Amino acid sequence: MSANPREPSRSQLVALNIAGFVGFFALWQLIAMSGLTPPQFLPTPLEVLQKFIQLMQAPFAGFTLQEHLLSSLIRFGLGFGLAVLIAVPLGLMMGWFGWLDDIVSPLFEAVRFVAPIAWVPFAALWFGTGIGGPTLIIFSGAFPPCLINAYRGARQVETRHIEAARMLGVSNFKMITEVLLPSSIPSIVAGLRVSAGLGWQSLVGAELIVASSGIGYLMTKGQSSINTPIVMSGMLAIGLVGVVIDVILRRVEAHIQRGHGQ
């Protein structure tokens, strides 16, 4: 008999997922109805859903829920896009040029352990509540995974590919763009999933402090007015958008892995 338990079928997996959600919301409903916590601080799932729909129709803190989400996504796109544009080429070059690796790695290893939320006071001083502060904070969260995975991908390129390119007299630029980059794409895309998750989490933390719109700002205003359904509606929106971003990147990753025979 195999020591490993039998993996569930797709239908069983879907049933287990549904059971998990049903169990969670049932427990939430029971606790909210039990009177153990004041209704003001723990609304029922239905109350949160009603508030969620209401926020989509009536502005709160200046905007509807969709407009807050759009503001957050624009900030996320700027910070995440900037991180990818800088980190991926830099990681590939560090994987090819040893001298560049020696220059950048010590500084990178010191800076990457500074949590994105620790950049908030600095960003607030420099940019106030403009778009620059949140962009910087998202960048600080998204940059390290992009760089690390691009670097690892470049370092793990098969030696025979590099040797063949050298025999053909390929320049350093073409070595990076035509040998290292194509071979590193699976690793880079895997890093993008992690990077996007950290960037989205960093965004919400930034908007709690240095923003005048967005989901984090909406939650802050809900907390100020002691309106728990608004706060939980913001949390629901954050989770839903995060899942959508991850699903998209997961599908891209799976497609690329199939293309590389993985």
Which key features would you list for this structure?
262 residues; MetI-like fold; 10 helices; mainly alpha; globular; single chain; 0% strand
Task: Describe this protein's structure.
With 262 residues, the chain is mainly alpha-helical. The chain has one domain (59-259): MetI-like fold, CATH 1.10.3720. The chain is 77% helix and 0% strand. The chain contains ten helices and no strands. It has helices spanning 10-34, 45-57, 65-96, 98-111, 120-127, 132-155, 159-167, 172-207, 215-224, 228-259. Helix 2 packs across helix 10 and helix 8 (172-207) packs antiparallel against helix 10. The longest helix has 36 residues, at 172-207. It starts with 9 loop residues before the first helix and ends with a helix.
Query: Helicity range of the residues?
Result: over 70%
Kindly estimate the percentage of residues that lie in beta strands according to DSSP: under 5%
What is the N-to-C succession of helices and strands?
A: HHHHHHHHHH
Radius of gyration (CA) equals 23 Å
Q: Identify the quaternary structure here.
A: single chain
Q: Which CATH first-tier class would you pick?
A: Mainly Alpha
Q: Find the structural class using helix and strand composition.
A: mainly alpha
- Total strands: the figure is 0
CATH architecture: Orthogonal Bundle
Name the CATH superfamily classification.
Answer: MetI-like
| Main pleated sheet | none
How would the global form be characterised? Answer: globular
Distance between the termini: 29 Å
Number of domains: 1
What are the low-pLDDT stretches, counting only 5+ consecutive residues below 50? none
The helix tally amounts to 10
Q: Provide the CATH topology.
A: MetI-like fold
Q: What's the mean pLDDT score?
A: 87
